[in-house]
Amino acid sequence: MIASDLSTGVEQLGEMIAAARSIVPFTGAGISTECGIPDFRSPGGLWTRNRPIPFDEFVASREARDESWRRRFAMEPTFAAAKPGRGHRALASLYRSGKIPAVITQNIDNLHQASGFAAEHVVELHGNTTYARCIGCGQAYDLAWVKQRFEQDGGAPDCTMCEEPVKTATISFGQAMPEVAMQRASELAQRCDLFLAIGSSLVVWPAAGFPMMARNNGARLVIINNEPTDQDDMADLVIRHDIGETLGPFVGN
Ligand code: NAD
Question: CA torsion 81→83→86→91, rounded to 10°?
Fold first, then answer.
């Protein structure tokens, strides 16, 4: 059911939150646009400017690795300046009140942790871009180290332990999904009684399967997104409005 207007949507969402025992939010890039981080698919989103570099290309081509790191460094002022928005803060309030056990996110921007979620309660399906890892042995690196090596050597650095390429700690297209995070997300989706899909176009699979999984296990499903999604028909409530405005009233509860 689509909420007729914003205030009706907020009221219905409030009733569902009050009635719920365990709420699991599932967030996408739309929750972070008000923090200054562009999403992928909106006009002006990252994809309208850059074709994504798939994992096999990153592994095979030094040029692709250099380009990937140049893009990441260009985004650093944006990521470094971003602060949690109203959506992040509303979810953090519900987390502190004990209603939310953990958040599942497709985002890579670390803003749920910055809003007050303990790191172990942020299930990152697509990793985290605020640090780097070796794709061979998994050794973690600071971005400052990568940047310094990039400038010194004129290109993307390799791991000092095993000499495999170092990449942002994110999951690229064509890269295997993180097994532990997928397992935890499945359990969360199956055990909650209210699932909130927030700011996702719900087209990136397998992540986009979690709302349906929650619904099939008896949870109520709410979709908050300013554009229609393919899964709106399945939802108990669709709020097709700005996320900050929709979740703002729940900050501090
Ligand atoms: P997406 O770009 O496909 O979809 C974002 C959706 O949010 C769009 O449908 C858009 O209309 C909606 N939206 C944007 N701003 C909104 C607002 N203020 N209020 C309401 N709706 C709003 O993003 P996705 O579904 O998360 O999938 C893309 C992939 O992009 C993710 O897997 C993620 O890894 C990656 N990504 C992450 C970030 C981030 O970490 N902030 C940013 C860009 C892309």
Answer: 140
Which pLDDT score, from 0 to 100, does residue 48 have? Answer: 56
Residue ranges and CATH numbers for the domains of the chain are 1-36+84-126+177-253 (3.40.50.1220), 38-81+127-170 (3.30.1600.10)
Q: Which residue has the tokens 């993307």?
A: 156
Whether 124 is in the pocket of ligand 1, judged by its Cβ within 6 Å, is: no
**The residue to which tokens 């979810």 are assigned:** 91
**Annotated catalytic residue: which of 88, 112, 121, 126?**
126
Look up residue 165 and give its DSSP letter: B
200 C-alpha to ligand 1 centroid (Å): 5
With a 6 A CB cut-off, is 46 part of the ligand 1 pocket?
yes
The DSSP 8-state label assigned to residue 249 in this structure reads: G
Cα 78 from Cα 14, distance rounded (Å): 32
Q: Which two tokens stand for residue 248?
A: 């703002």
Residue whose entry in the numeric block shows the structure tokens 């390429």: 165
For the question of residue 126 being annotated catalytic, the response is: yes
pLDDT digits (tens, 9 = 90+) for 96-153: 999 999 999 999 999 999 999 999 999 999 999 999 999 999 999 999 999 999 999 9
- With b for 16 or more beta-carbon neighbours within 10 A and e for fewer, the 19-28 pattern comes to ebebbbbbbb
Residue 239, strand partner residues? 224
Q: Is 107 in the pocket of ligand 1 (CB under 6 A)?
A: yes
